[in-house]
Amino acid sequence: MSDKLKNQNPQNAVEVEDLTVAYQEKPVLWDVDLHVPQGVLQAIIGPNGAGKTTLIKSILGLVKPSAGRILIYGQPYEEQRDLVAYVPQRGSVDWDFPTSVLDVVMMGRYGSLGWFKRPGKKEHQLALEALEKVGMSEFSRRQISQLSGGQQQRVFLARALTQDAQVYFMDEPFQGVDATTEKAIITLLKDLRAAGKTVLVVHHDLQTVSEYFDWVLLLNVRRISCGPVQEVFTDQNLKLAYGGKVSFLTHHTHTEQDQITNI
Amino acid sequence: MSQAQIEIQLIAIVVSVACALPGVFLMLRRMAMMSDAISHAILLGIVLAFFVTQNLSSPLLVIGAALTGVLTVVLVELLHRTRLVREDAAIGLIFPLLFSLGVILISRYAGNIHLDIDAVLLGELAFAPFDRLMVFGRDIGPKSLYLMLGILFLNICFIGIFFKELKLVSFDSGLAMALGFSPTLIHYSLMSLVSVTAVGAFDAVGSILVVALMIGPPVSAYLLTDRLSILLLLSSGIGIIASVSGYWMANLMDSSIAGSMATMVGFLFLLIYLFAPNKGLVSLARRRRRQKIQFALEMLLVHILNHQGKPEAQRECHVGHLSEHLYWDKDLSRQVLKQGEREDYLQRQDDYLFLTPEGQDIAEKSMLR
Q: CB B180 to CB A93 under 8 A?
């Protein structure tokens, strides 16, 4: 793993060039460029249907792009799977599936186990440690059908943590979780960043973008803007991304700026 | 029991376990109806393979049939992917087409051989012991028993070796793909397995019963457990009980074995659906009732706390006035009082209610909630 990191351009954890994805000739992503430096906590924001989930899915090879090049630390994703962890939307799986919390968390280790090999003591231990980090230790034996929304999200995060990756992709980890869980998750994400990991998060709540993240991508089929929050998360860019529906946003950004000037 | 009876039951047991195992994954992947499609469509494969080999016991028949099973899945997915037809409708279009092609071919070209429609739909387990497997001139048992044992072995091996992959792909195919496990490969392997199982079982028990044995036991077992490994074991067990009891029911009533076995599958499901310890209807109803009483008791404790020791206590805390003040029917009031006294939250003195210290505690906590 260290070789893979060393050999490549160290600045960019994720590079996307000219990515176009279309469903039935209808472009969902149109010529998107994205360069994410290592060690940032990046929000991906944009209105519904802007292609946020599709962007993540095409980086992970779950959706086949019509055009474009995607590199993780300078190499195609297929060669860098072990550097990448993925937290899908909570609603994308069946939580009535007959399995336990610990079992789901161990699934994060399946990639490095490869075909045939069964998870053993080591995987068990790693899963328990990850559950500890998300504050779910006492739930390890629990059936997943008995979890609340926030607990489900923590389980998914723990699963991603066991992957021990360099780059984390998270699709709406804050959706439908209470304030405590949101705080716990953001602390965890900041810890990851502090450990030099790169984290990309599809995010919806514009009010918290500047508080939680240091890097941001504004997306609406095309790339509107990408870069440090202070430079990119502006009134004008938000208008470009969200169209006319931004009266509440402009209000918000004004107060945001007021606060900054007050300081 | 005669030897034939034992052999029939052995075949039934092996068939039911062989069907239940892949059936668990069909159910979890929400593809229950695919078993219906595959078990019918394989008829076309059997007929076509028969035309090539002119031999009803050729192993090519199994392969041909399995291929049509997989073809069914491919066609359904192709049709579904155009987004002009929903998946369930696509299943409803494809398998009758393939099945009826098979029916036409049989009635047109194979009228004089042992491949009739009745046998296809219902199978005839009773005749299975007549077709013997001879090794070096020695009779070692009915052929279909060995065929099904082979298929059962195949299923156990596949699920044993790919248990982790099957679980991951069934639970979260997105993650499976991101981690480099091909969901498509697993999917088609499972579908091939279902097809092979359907072919083997179909010969012994017919296509309708294949569906019953693939779906009924897993769905019943799902109401009894939350663990995948236990689910596989329980499904097999339920399949065995259904097939053996079905056999004896048929024996008793002198009726179709396949039909009786399928009926027993349905009957077992009904029993479990009603009486399963946690997810059954009866225990659900009982739990709701208990919650209702528990909540009513909490309300009563708060009510007494609010009025206890006040001038209106005479009125509000009298047993006889509960139904008037809280608008409860007599039955509920009686049960709530009983529960309160049993848990020692309430005391009754001359038909007036008082909170015990525990009851007071509970009431205060409830108000803070």
A: no
Residue-wise pLDDT for A198-227, tens only, equals 999 998 888 888 888 888 888 888 888 888
Structure tokens at A51: 């292609």
Mean pLDDT of B90-95: 92
Do the Cβ atoms of A221 and A30 come closer than 8 Å?
yes
The per-residue pLDDT for A1 is 46
Cβ distance A94 to B165 less than 8 Å, yes or no, reads no
d(CA B19, CA B236): 8
What chain B holds in terms of domains, given with CATH numbers, is 3-277 (1.10.3470.10), 282-368 (1.10.10.10)
pTM value > 0.90: no
- Which residues partner with A71 through β-bridges? A15
Q: pLDDT digit string (tens) for B274-284?
A: 999 888 899 99
**Chain B interface residues facing chain A, Cβ-Cβ under 8 Å?**
28, 83, 161-165, 167-168, 170-172, 174-181, 222, 225-228, 230-231
Contact B171 A110 (CB under 8 A): no
> How close is the nearest chain A Cα to the Cα of B191, in Å?
19
- Residue to substitute from A24, A82, A115, interface B, most B β-carbons within 10 A: A115
Please answer yes or no on whether B171 and A97 come within 8 Å at the CB atom: yes
SS (H, E, C) B300-336: HHHHHHHHCCCCCHHHHCEHHHHHHHHCCCHHHHHHH
> Does residue B191 surpass a pLDDT of 50?
yes
* Distance (Å) from the alpha carbon of B196 to chain A's nearest alpha carbon: 22
